[in-house]
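Data deposition worksheet. Section B asks for the primary sequence of the deposited chain exactly as it was used as input, without tags or linkers unless they were present during the calculation. Section C holds the resulting structure in token form. Section D is free text for depositor observations; keep each observation to a single sentence. Incomplete worksheets are returned to the depositor.
Section A, Depositor: J.P.
Section B:
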Amino acid sequence: MGLRSTRWAILAITAALALTVGACGGDDDDGGGGSASSGDSSEPIKIGASLPLTGEFSEPGKAAQQGYELWADQINANGGLLGRKVELVVKDDASNQNTVVSDYNALIAQDKVDLLLGTFSSLLNLPASAVAERNRMVYVEPAGGNPDIFNRGFKTIFFAQQATADHQGDVWANWITQLPEDKRPKTAAYPTLDDPFTTPTSEGIEKILSGAGIETVYRKTYTADQTNFDSIANAVKAKNPDLVVAGTQFEDGIGMMRALNKVGFAPKWLYETNAPSFGSQFADGVGEENTEGVFYAVSHSQEAKTPGNAEFVKAYQDKFGEETVPEDAADAYAAAQVLQATVEANKTVERADQLKLADWIRSNSVDTILGTLSWNENGSPKGEFLIGQWQDGKAEIVLPEDAATTDKIVEGYKPGS
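Section C:
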């Protein structure tokens, strides 16, 4: 995945550059800077996005593209947006921060899109959203939960999931703290990838658990170029924690679990970010017999009774021929739903009205396939993530109770089951 820690360190520089080069975005001094289709209802509404269709984030990037495409197909089949067809303009940022800046500047200045949708990952959305802010265009991102994205005083960015990364494990952590005394863990370990998503997620969970008296006996941050996790697994084993929170992306998440199994250590409780939400790919990577009891947070469930979700799942399966709907496809679809809601409520896509669209999102809630979303003043969401657990070779939703797909929670991590 490359030296992500280095990339993270230069994010502020990249974002500052984005604000500067964003001047080529074509917005006039009065903020009007009209779009190519202004005043012409016969022209399609052009919606631009740059996605990592190649490079290290290509898998979720392609899933996000599917979500956007499915939304566009459905809205066009139902008469379009404001009675006009929707045309998606999607560029490939190749998982590169500099490219994503260039792409969004080009979408605004050259392609003259009417609206923007976000890219995938905090690494890419941080600089990309700076371009949107400079050009005063609404920017709804499907992924990118690092809290620093929302600490810049921006008025146009909104995250179309239920919580930022530092709060995505809250439901699970609070549940752990409320376990009976004889089951509640007393010690915890936090091996964590140096990444703008995994680090705040891990730290958010640790804050809750430490506050409840669960002692941190191990915390290790490793870089994205680490591929052998035996030394970390042995160090965790030596501390013998009751609970392990592994702050991981996909590949290192698989590697971490393999290493723990290799050294023969199974904590009583195991929570891992990201990797367990990848369904059969996760099970294949670690062995289905080693998935039992693993917890994780997730934004979308195929079985959820949220508005329009059943129809979305069927439409996705019909269009793409896949039984399992990627979480990233659902997140992208939800981001488009948020954009659609504000456009329909305000009946405009004009450049001069973009701040009006942003004010509407800030002041309203939107029903999506992820549930009802609402936002703080800074564009961060107010909700709670779903908590999943692997049971009998299948990923289930176990918390909160009103969203659960099963009425049981497996007590502890049970590899080899």
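Section D:
Residues 4-164+306-373 form a domain with the Rossmann fold fold (CATH 3.40.50.2300).
The chain has two domains: 4-164+306-373, 167-300+385-403.
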